Amino acid sequence: MIPSNKIVHRKADGRLIRGTWRPAFIRNGGNYFLTELYVYADGIVDAWGLLTLAEFEEKLASGWVATSLPEGGRASAHHLAAWRFHEPHTWYTPELLLAEVRDTIDELNGRPDSTGRCRALIDVFMADRTEANRLAVRAAYLAIPETLRRYALGDMDCKDQPLRVLAAGVGGRDEEVDEVVTPEEYEEAIGYFAAAERWGPAPAGDRTAEKNAAGRFSSVHIPHSYPQGSDSPGKEALRITYPAPFDYEGTTYPTVAHAFLALSTTDPGIRAAAAEADTPGRAKRLTADAPRPADWDRTRPALMARLLDAKFAQHPALAAILLATGDETILYDEYDDTDFWGDNGGRGRNWLGRLLELTRAGLPAAPAPAPAR
What we know:
Helix content: 25-40%
Largest sheet: 8 strands, mixed
């Protein structure tokens, strides 16, 4: 859960990105500094510098963001105090802290976090009590960071005991108490979940509908797909691989992906072959090792923006689909790129989502319906 008094914002690309913060130690020059770790909805973490989740994971592995504190280590809180650690004990490992940060990104985006996903699977199991559904609950429970499992049910009397029993199953071992689950204990757990009145308010990550009703923090998710052309497409038409031929600087391209990949290389022959490839995947393979412009990393977002503008300007029906997303944040999954172009569950920088929002802002508004006569 994200306390309301810990909400912060960062300005990026002309918009405010919602975030929160938590205390953390950063190890720098052999000293440990108690500071704030800022986590933002677009998957960026500020640990004395803006990092993608992959970069943050590297900082955790290197010990820059410290989860273990040495006996006698020198520590300070800026302008407040300095001390040395004596018999330090921490609750975190790099993996645990990373898992909590990922949960926080889900919460900031109004998506179910690991606890919300587990609770949803409990409902599935209670509606259809198969062993496969129970094992799905078990996997989801184990995916909750250990530091948060005790609070998964929102019940401070039972804590997560019914969930542990359900996850273990009859004859399985409840690792918390190191005991084998009996049939009686299992039936008690089933009874607990059957009593709907026991359930408290949904965790923060489950409040998507509430946030959308308030007109805040809502988003449109464009999942991975392999779109085919359609006379009445849905949001798959927003993907760069959707077949919507368009002209750009005198050349017709089957998709935005074809155009982007063709224009990514300075080799005329490869460029022509990529533009005519039968699929975006084929175009990607053709250009994988092709020479790039010297400033490619800096200029590629601008090129993608121009290509998106051209696609939607030449396809009014697809532009209407983009306009129908209103002012919501667009989260774009891109399986070929987990860091830059896609959101990918908060792990990437979501540049395609951002550029689609920019394209949307430049589209003419849909005409108002004619007044009734």
